Amino acid sequence: MWSGPRNISTAMMRSWENRGDAAVSDEPLYAHYLKVRQDVDHPGREEILATCDTDWRSVVGQLSGDIPEGHTIWYQKHMAHHLLDEICDHGWMSAMRHGFLIRDPARVVTSLVKVMPNATLRDTGLPQQVEIFQRMCDERGALMPVIDAADVLADPQGTLESLCVAFGVPFTERMLRWPAGKRSSDGIWAKYWYATVEKSTGFDADVQSSEPVPERYRGLLEECRPLYEKLAKWRLMARR
Q1: Residue 64: alpha-carbon gap to chain centroid
Q2: Cβ atoms of 203 and 18 closer than 8 Å
Q3: pLDDT tens per residue, range 120-159
Q4: What Rg, from alpha-carbon coordinates, does the chain have?
Q5: First to last CA, the chain
Q6: Which end of the chain is more exposed for a tag (fewer CB within 10 A), N or C?
Q7: Which residues of the chain fall short of a pLDDT of 50?
């Protein structure tokens, strides 16, 4: 599942892990991203670099291997902006099914620039999402599933049912609720980013923010919109 930052990607990971038949991986390319992007000052940066695999070839070799712990599904939560240009061989992606989690770019930008004041278009992950979507659609001659965070929050069951159909797996209501708390499957960066999701037990209602995009980032927002719209026009709708 390819997501941009400041989305509901961790809640989605909780949802899939709670199925009982799915292993999950939390942003496996994050350490490589930080190794290459030395200008990015994320919390816990040195700890992540010291304890996580920074070699993308090694990481994708693992991601392409057997599903862990005898599960039948492997839900891999990826931040699209972690797929840097240096990861030049995308052949490993061909054996996988791909989904795309998008969010209104006004809300992404407003949230992102609070933690990344010099954010650029590629930091939103939208160009990478569009690139991967188009490549996989062309390769397979079919559309890849796209879901919008707003749709998931408005109708979790209907939207997740549609996603499961697209992936060819059965839906289970276990995807709608999960126990609060930490997970051993969370990345070591959870202590900096996951406080809200650790308190969650399901998908919270989508409360619309009235906070405007700061004037200095209006140009970034305008760059984002056409890319978001390219994906949004294909988004899955609830099945009920």
Answers
A1: 18
A2: no
A3: 999 999 999 999 999 999 999 999 999 999 999 999 999 9
A4: 17
A5: 23
A6: C
A7: none
pTM summary value: 0.94
pLDDT for 9 equals 95
Q: Are 22 and 68 in contact (CB under 8 A)?
A: no
- As assigned by CATH, the class of the 2-232 domain is alpha beta
Alpha helices in the chain (DSSP H): 9-17, 30-36, 45-51, 56-63, 105-115, 126-140, 149-154, 156-167, 190-193, 195-199, 218-232
- Give the C-alpha separation, 216 to 98, whole Å: 34
**168 φψ region: left (φ > 0), alpha (ψ -120 to 50), beta (else):** left
How far apart CA 47 and CA 72 sit, in angstroms, is 32
- Are 32 and 55 in contact by the 8 Å Cβ rule? The answer is yes
The DSSP bridge partners found for residue 86 are: none
Other CB atoms within a 10 A radius of the CB of residue 201 amount to 12
